[in-house]
Amino acid sequence: VVQLLSSEELETEDERLVYESAMNWINYDLNKRHCYLPEMLQTVRLALLPAIYLMENVATEELITKHRKSKDIVEEAIRCKLKILQNDGVVTSLCARPRKTGHALFLLGGQTFMCDKLYLVDQKAKEIIPKADIPSPRKEFSACAIGCKVYITGGRGSENGVSKDVWVYDTLHEEWSKAAPMLVARFGHGSAELKHCLYVVGGHTAATGCLPASPSVSLKQVEQYDPVTNKWTMVAPLREGVSNAAVVSAKLKLFAFGGTSVSHDKLPKVQCYDL
């Protein structure tokens, strides 16, 4: 098990899976295996865990707090995590070394026509492979990947109505499920992942009383979705409402590049949300 979990060939985008596998192995026969806890913890890239998970789940785990060597391993990982979060120099510890990940490219959606198709671009075979259809055809939605799942938010659905719906594609099981709806129906928005949460930014909603939906002014509202709690929360709004902006996260910040302003002009600005 140690050889498997510590292998440089092990691929994962969520180190929690490795930690939980190690702990499940220990707990399966606790009396005989508890002595291997430090060795098992060293197979986990603990500093790659989400900070909250590391502090609230790992650092408080009773098996770890009662074992001096295990506790030291976790405390060292916390120090590495803080250096990473504070951008305080290069962290070379094994507990912070990134895992290999297998990446995939998906094609879906569009702006002109309703679409329910999802395709996988197989770079090795050099072909495009159809996958499970989106359950509800739509256009002008936004898509974002978190781990092994793809989240599509909002868009225009049936009869051109603006949607709050959130659909989730599980790339491992190749199936769709529905998540909690957004707080504001929107289309032409952007989305990005930041600290394991999904953010949707700007876009349009429906102008009041208009059917089929016609665009409102560009939105300022920004929403955060937590996949763990399946809940949406409003966060600080954009300084200027914008639609069709390019949205990306980097270094614990969310950036919205350009887009169309509330006056329907092209916006030559970059807006930044700092956690």
Automatic annotation (TrEMBL):
Keywords per UniProt: Kelch repeat
Annotated ranges, domain BACK: 2-58
Classification via SMART domains: Kelch
InterPro entries (UniProt xref): BACK, Kelch-typ_b-propeller, Kelch_1
Protein name: Ectodermal neural cortex 6
Organism from which the protein derives: Urosaurus ornatus (Tree lizard)
Lineage, uppermost ranks: Eukaryota, Metazoa, Chordata, Craniata, Vertebrata
Gene symbol of the encoding locus: enc6
